[in-house]
């Protein structure tokens, strides 16, 4: 499906034109406008915030529900874009019409995102701030599992235990280095320094759900790249 992406600049161009038109009307600056702007890579107003943000259990639970809803939205969007692939690849006279259809898909996604966020009781800024913590924590934990450092450490320690004392000492620095890597993925010291212990700990209370959402989102996007 790599050929599918050649027409996306057309969609972006049409989207930019549409945004200019909308911006001139009475709805400029509304929540919907913010969401479309975020889709086009612009920073959402208030996304950075001032000072540390506290992720509460209630806000995190709302965010998990928001994520699941957005997975449905992204899945629908990706399927729609895939269905348009053969038409666009064929270079038919309906190519521009297909590009406009792609724009409509993106606009529907933007509205669905606003609806999901509103239903969750979250602002755009809250979604962005919570996502920052969640993405950092869950991606680091996922990387640790992918690299299988814990399993490698166990093998290394077992090997060291079978060695003569002199060889054990030679292997000790490597074992200690691996332990530090495992400790970093388990305790997340960098994330804790950046976001605080309380924020990291509350995210870890929903680690299983957030990890599933993280993996499902990767699958949703990977579906258009093959």
From TrEMBL:
Name of the molecule in the record: Lipoprotein
């Amino acid at each position: 499906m790599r050929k599918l992406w050649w027409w996306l600049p057309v969609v972006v161009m049409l989207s930019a034109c549409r945004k200019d038109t909308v911006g001139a009307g009475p709805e400029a600056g509304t929540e919907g406008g913010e969401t479309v702007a975020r889709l086009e890579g612009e920073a959402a107003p208030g996304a950075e915030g001032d000072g540390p943000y506290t992720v509460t259990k209630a806000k995190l639970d709302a965010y998990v529900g928001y994520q699941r809803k957005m997975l449905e939205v992204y899945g629908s969007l990706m399927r729609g874009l895939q269905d348009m692939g053969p038409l666009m690849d064929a270079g038919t006279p309906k190519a521009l019409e297909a590009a406009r259809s792609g724009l409509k898909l993106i606009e529907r996604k933007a509205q669905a995102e606003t609806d999901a966020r509103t239903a969750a009781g979250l602002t755009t800024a809250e979604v962005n701030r919570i996502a920052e913590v969640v993405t950092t924590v869950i991606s680091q934990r996922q990387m640790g599992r992918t690299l299988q450092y814990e399993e490698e450490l166990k093998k290394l320690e077992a090997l060291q235990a079978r060695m003569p004392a002199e060889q054990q000492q030679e292997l000790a620095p490597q074992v200690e280095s691996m332990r530090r890597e495992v400790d970093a993925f388990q305790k997340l010291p960098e994330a804790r320094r950046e976001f605080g212990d309380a924020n990291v700990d509350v995210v870890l209370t929903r680690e299983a759900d957030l990890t599933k959402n993280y993996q499902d989102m990767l699958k949703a996007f990977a579906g258009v790249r093959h």
